[in-house]
Amino acid sequence: MEYLPQFVGLAAIALLGAMSPGADFVLVSRNALVYSRRTGIFTALGIGLGVLVHVFYTLAGIGLIISQSILLFNLIKLAGAAYLIYLGAKSLRARPQQLAVAKADESKKDISSLKAVAMGVATNALNPKVTLFFLSLFVQFISVGTPLGIQVALGLETALIIGAWFVLVAFMFSHDWLKAKLQKFGHWFERLTGAALIALGIKVGLSTQK
């Protein structure tokens, strides 16, 4: 009970952070709608694993190193930006006939669970601004005297909450009603999410440590 306020406070901030629109949201909603619910869910699980990467960085002190090293920060930043722009460029090439063929044979269009997880991990883990977010967040809830077990539990809680939120997003965007409404605009939705991913990639690429 001693650390209950930390768990409650961190959970609330983690959920609010997850609900803020960003690359993770765009990727999960796109994969759930364009591919399948399964793909959206595995993408969300990948994002949860990506969060664990930032948690590890923070608890191991690597997050502080990243925040202080301009070279390391920029390397991770540019890798993340390039990946988002790559995903966005692929989406921009979507064509109506491609989606029509996929509808006739959905299993052929869908991507593997492993690839969906990898997309989620890469999109989240290659964003150094998220590391800085966790660094500033954990400073508020973890002190020098906080037991290691509690620190790990707080990190796991954060990953579970963020992962669970994006699983919910995957369920929402893979609902039959929404898919039916957006079916004839499917390639335009994919192009829209592609443009959003490119814009977010540029934003990440131009971001600074401060």
Describe the structure.
The chain is globular, with a radius of gyration of 18 Å. The protein contains twelve helices and no strands. Helix content is 84%, strand content 0%. With 210 residues, the chain is mainly α. The longest helix is centred in the C-terminal third of the chain and has 26 residues, at 148-173. The model is unreliable at 97-102 and 104-108 (pLDDT under 50). The protein has one domain. Helix 2 packs antiparallel against helix 8 (113-125).
Rg calc:
18 Å
Strand percentage lies at: under 5%
Inertia-based shape: globular
Question: Helix count?
Answer: 12
Main pleated sheet = none
Provide the residue-averaged pLDDT.
82
Beta strand count: 0
Helix content: over 70%
Low-confidence spans: pLDDT under 50, at least 5 residues?
97-102, 104-108
What class would the helix/strand composition place it in?
Answer: mainly alpha
Following the backbone from N to C, one meets helices and strands in this order, namely: HHHHHHHHHHHH
How many domains would you count in the coordinates? 1
N- to C-terminal separation? 35 Å
Jot down its keywords.
210 residues, mainly alpha, 84% helix
Outline of this structure?
By secondary structure, this protein is mostly helical.
List the helices and strands and how they pair.
Elements: H1 4-19, H2 23-34, H3 37-60, H4 62-68, H5 70-92, H6 96-104, H7 106-109, H8 113-125, H9 128-141, H10 148-173, H11 176-182, H12 186-206
